[in-house]
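TODO from last week: model Small secreted protein.
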Amino acid sequence: MNKKFAATLAGGAALMLVLSGCGGDETDQKAGSWAKKVCDQWQPEIEKIEAANVEIKRVASESNKPDQVQKTDSAAFATMTESYKAMAAALRSAGVPPVKNGAATQEAAAKGFDTTSQGYADLKAKTDALDPQDKTKFADGLTEVAGGLKDVTKGGQDALAQLKAGGLGQAINSQKGCQAATAPAPSQ
Protein backbone atom coordinates (compact mmCIF):
# COMPACT_ATOMS: atom_id res chain seq x y z
CA MET A 1 0.00 0.00 0.00
CA ASN A 2 2.74 2.45 0.91
CA LYS A 3 4.57 1.89 -2.39
CA LYS A 4 1.43 2.75 -4.36
CA PHE A 5 1.03 5.89 -2.28
CA ALA A 6 4.64 6.89 -2.90
CA ALA A 7 4.26 6.31 -6.63
CA THR A 8 1.21 8.53 -6.71
CA LEU A 9 2.96 11.23 -4.72
CA ALA A 10 5.91 11.11 -7.05
CA GLY A 11 3.52 12.35 -9.71
CA GLY A 12 3.67 15.71 -7.94
CA ALA A 13 7.32 15.82 -8.91
CA ALA A 14 6.22 15.73 -12.54
CA LEU A 15 5.15 19.34 -12.14
CA MET A 16 8.71 20.29 -11.36
CA LEU A 17 9.99 18.38 -14.38
CA VAL A 18 8.17 20.85 -16.60
CA LEU A 19 10.43 23.53 -15.18
CA SER A 20 13.57 21.64 -16.08
CA GLY A 21 13.02 21.80 -19.85
CA CYS A 22 15.69 23.14 -22.11
CA GLY A 23 15.61 26.81 -22.97
CA GLY A 24 16.58 28.10 -26.40
CA ASP A 25 18.11 31.40 -27.44
CA GLU A 26 16.65 34.14 -25.32
CA THR A 27 15.19 36.71 -27.69
CA ASP A 28 13.37 38.83 -25.19
CA GLN A 29 15.65 40.40 -22.59
CA LYS A 30 12.73 41.87 -20.64
CA ALA A 31 11.02 38.49 -20.35
CA GLY A 32 14.34 36.98 -19.31
CA SER A 33 14.83 39.60 -16.60
CA TRP A 34 11.31 39.04 -15.34
CA ALA A 35 11.79 35.26 -15.35
CA LYS A 36 15.06 35.62 -13.44
CA LYS A 37 13.26 37.52 -10.66
CA VAL A 38 10.68 34.75 -10.44
CA CYS A 39 13.07 31.83 -10.75
CA ASP A 40 15.52 33.19 -8.19
CA GLN A 41 12.64 33.15 -5.70
CA TRP A 42 11.32 29.79 -6.90
CA GLN A 43 14.62 27.91 -6.64
CA PRO A 44 14.52 27.27 -2.88
CA GLU A 45 10.85 26.34 -3.13
CA ILE A 46 11.50 23.85 -5.94
CA GLU A 47 14.26 22.30 -3.82
CA LYS A 48 11.91 22.02 -0.82
CA ILE A 49 9.22 20.37 -2.96
CA GLU A 50 11.75 17.90 -4.38
CA ALA A 51 13.04 17.09 -0.88
CA ALA A 52 9.47 16.58 0.39
CA ASN A 53 8.75 14.17 -2.45
CA VAL A 54 11.95 12.26 -1.71
CA GLU A 55 10.97 11.94 1.97
CA ILE A 56 7.48 10.69 1.10
CA LYS A 57 8.95 8.06 -1.20
CA ARG A 58 11.59 7.10 1.36
CA VAL A 59 9.20 6.58 4.25
CA ALA A 60 6.70 4.76 2.04
CA SER A 61 9.31 2.26 0.96
CA GLU A 62 11.17 1.90 4.26
CA SER A 63 8.52 2.16 6.95
CA ASN A 64 5.64 -0.07 7.81
CA LYS A 65 4.86 2.13 10.81
CA PRO A 66 1.71 4.13 10.09
CA ASP A 67 2.60 6.83 12.62
CA GLN A 68 5.93 7.45 10.88
CA VAL A 69 4.26 7.54 7.46
CA GLN A 70 1.65 9.95 8.78
CA LYS A 71 4.24 12.24 10.38
CA THR A 72 6.41 12.34 7.25
CA ASP A 73 3.52 12.82 4.82
CA SER A 74 2.00 15.54 6.97
CA ALA A 75 5.31 17.43 7.14
CA ALA A 76 5.81 17.04 3.38
CA PHE A 77 2.32 18.34 2.63
CA ALA A 78 2.95 21.31 4.94
CA THR A 79 6.18 22.06 3.07
CA MET A 80 4.42 21.83 -0.29
CA THR A 81 1.61 24.06 0.95
CA GLU A 82 4.06 26.78 1.91
CA SER A 83 6.26 26.34 -1.16
CA TYR A 84 3.44 26.66 -3.66
CA LYS A 85 2.10 29.67 -1.73
CA ALA A 86 5.58 31.24 -1.95
CA MET A 87 5.73 30.49 -5.68
CA ALA A 88 2.44 32.33 -6.19
CA ALA A 89 3.75 35.27 -4.14
CA ALA A 90 6.96 35.32 -6.19
CA LEU A 91 4.94 35.62 -9.39
CA ARG A 92 2.97 38.52 -7.99
CA SER A 93 6.00 40.32 -6.55
CA ALA A 94 7.99 40.11 -9.81
CA GLY A 95 5.74 42.67 -11.43
CA VAL A 96 3.67 42.29 -14.57
CA PRO A 97 5.49 40.13 -17.12
CA PRO A 98 6.39 41.91 -20.38
CA VAL A 99 4.07 39.90 -22.62
CA LYS A 100 0.66 40.45 -24.16
CA ASN A 101 -1.98 40.18 -21.43
CA GLY A 102 0.85 40.00 -18.89
CA ALA A 103 -1.25 40.93 -15.86
CA ALA A 104 -3.91 38.33 -16.67
CA THR A 105 -1.26 35.68 -17.38
CA GLN A 106 0.52 36.48 -14.13
CA GLU A 107 -2.62 36.38 -11.98
CA ALA A 108 -3.99 33.21 -13.58
CA ALA A 109 -0.67 31.44 -12.97
CA ALA A 110 -0.45 32.71 -9.39
CA LYS A 111 -4.00 31.49 -8.73
CA GLY A 112 -3.01 28.06 -10.05
CA PHE A 113 -0.19 27.86 -7.52
CA ASP A 114 -2.55 29.12 -4.80
CA THR A 115 -4.96 26.32 -5.71
CA THR A 116 -2.18 23.74 -5.45
CA SER A 117 -1.10 25.21 -2.10
CA GLN A 118 -4.64 24.92 -0.74
CA GLY A 119 -4.92 21.40 -2.10
CA TYR A 120 -1.82 20.31 -0.22
CA ALA A 121 -3.16 21.99 2.93
CA ASP A 122 -6.33 19.92 2.53
CA LEU A 123 -4.30 16.72 2.05
CA LYS A 124 -2.31 17.54 5.18
CA ALA A 125 -5.54 17.95 7.16
CA LYS A 126 -6.85 14.63 5.84
CA THR A 127 -3.56 12.91 6.65
CA ASP A 128 -3.48 14.39 10.15
CA ALA A 129 -7.04 13.16 10.76
CA LEU A 130 -6.13 9.52 10.01
CA ASP A 131 -5.85 7.10 12.91
CA PRO A 132 -2.49 5.31 12.60
CA GLN A 133 -3.55 2.83 15.29
CA ASP A 134 -6.15 1.27 12.98
CA LYS A 135 -3.96 -0.01 10.15
CA THR A 136 -6.85 -0.93 7.86
CA LYS A 137 -8.58 2.43 8.15
CA PHE A 138 -5.22 4.16 7.90
CA ALA A 139 -4.38 2.36 4.66
CA ASP A 140 -7.83 3.18 3.26
CA GLY A 141 -7.35 6.81 4.27
CA LEU A 142 -3.96 6.98 2.57
CA THR A 143 -5.52 5.57 -0.57
CA GLU A 144 -8.10 8.37 -0.46
CA VAL A 145 -5.37 10.97 0.09
CA ALA A 146 -3.35 9.55 -2.80
CA GLY A 147 -6.44 9.69 -4.99
CA GLY A 148 -6.68 13.42 -4.39
CA LEU A 149 -3.15 14.14 -5.57
CA LYS A 150 -4.04 14.38 -9.24
CA ASP A 151 -6.51 17.15 -8.50
CA VAL A 152 -4.05 18.90 -6.19
CA THR A 153 -1.26 19.08 -8.76
CA LYS A 154 -3.62 20.26 -11.50
CA GLY A 155 -3.49 23.87 -10.28
CA GLY A 156 0.29 23.99 -10.55
CA GLN A 157 0.24 22.32 -13.94
CA ASP A 158 -2.36 24.84 -15.10
CA ALA A 159 -0.18 27.66 -13.75
CA LEU A 160 2.81 26.50 -15.77
CA ALA A 161 0.63 26.03 -18.85
CA GLN A 162 -0.68 29.58 -18.37
CA LEU A 163 2.85 30.98 -18.27
CA LYS A 164 3.85 28.98 -21.34
CA ALA A 165 0.75 30.04 -23.26
CA GLY A 166 1.44 33.63 -22.23
CA GLY A 167 4.82 33.47 -23.95
CA LEU A 168 6.99 33.04 -20.86
CA GLY A 169 7.85 29.34 -21.10
CA GLN A 170 11.19 29.78 -22.85
CA ALA A 171 12.24 32.63 -20.57
CA ILE A 172 11.43 30.60 -17.45
CA ASN A 173 12.99 27.39 -18.74
CA SER A 174 16.24 29.19 -19.52
CA GLN A 175 16.67 30.30 -15.91
CA LYS A 176 18.87 28.14 -13.71
CA GLY A 177 16.66 28.82 -10.68
CA CYS A 178 13.68 27.17 -12.39
CA GLN A 179 15.50 24.01 -13.35
CA ALA A 180 14.92 21.08 -11.06
CA ALA A 181 18.11 20.08 -9.26
CA THR A 182 17.23 16.43 -9.62
CA ALA A 183 14.83 15.10 -12.17
CA PRO A 184 13.69 11.68 -10.95
CA ALA A 185 11.17 10.08 -13.23
CA PRO A 186 7.90 9.46 -11.45
CA SER A 187 7.45 5.80 -10.49
CA GLN A 188 4.43 4.08 -11.88
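Done. The CA atoms of residues 47 and 181 lie 7 Å apart.
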